[in-house]
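Lab notebook, design round three. We kept the backbone fixed and only want residue identities now. Task for the bench partner: fill in a sequence for the structure below.
Input structure tokens:
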């Protein structure tokens, strides 16, 4: 098994998300979590409220521990098969909302999650993807 997600990689992804958001004129929070869902880096731009911070943190957790994009997790959680027992009943930290992506290495192993909160779901996910793309070479 690989070393856990390093601070340098986590910080690089978070900084890239902040810069991508600013380039689009939006203010966001970004969280990067380890495979176990522990937040390694949390950056919040000026003017972002507590909801943006908390959603970024919980989406990073969700992407890391489920190993799937939070938009896909949201579809899973909303499926009729889950109506009787939602995943959030098992783990209340899970957040089924777009904007979080798992961080995987070249062999497919999930080593963490990166997520954005503070904008709409589509924008959050696009900025999280930019953050992930910025660290691609560091994950090989």
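Proposed sequence:
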């Amino acid at each position: 098994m690989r070393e856990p997600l390093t601070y340098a990689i986590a910080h690089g992804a978070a900084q890239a998300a902040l810069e991508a958001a600013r380039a689009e004129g939006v203010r966001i929070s970004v969280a990067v979590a380890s495979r176990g869902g522990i937040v390694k880096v949390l950056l919040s731009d000026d003017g972002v409220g507590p909801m943006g911070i908390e959603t970024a943190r919980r989406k990073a957790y969700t992407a890391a521990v489920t190993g799937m994009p939070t938009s896909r997790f949201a579809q899973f959680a909303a499926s009729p098969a889950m109506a009787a027992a939602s995943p959030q009943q098992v783990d209340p930290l899970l957040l089924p909302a777009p904007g979080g992506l798992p961080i995987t290495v070249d062999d497919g192993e999930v080593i963490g999650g990166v997520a954005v909160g503070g904008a709409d779901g589509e924008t959050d996910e696009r900025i999280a993807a930019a953050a992930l793309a910025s660290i691609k070479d560091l994950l090989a």
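Keep this in mind before ordering anything: The CA atoms of residues 21 and 27 lie 6 Å apart.
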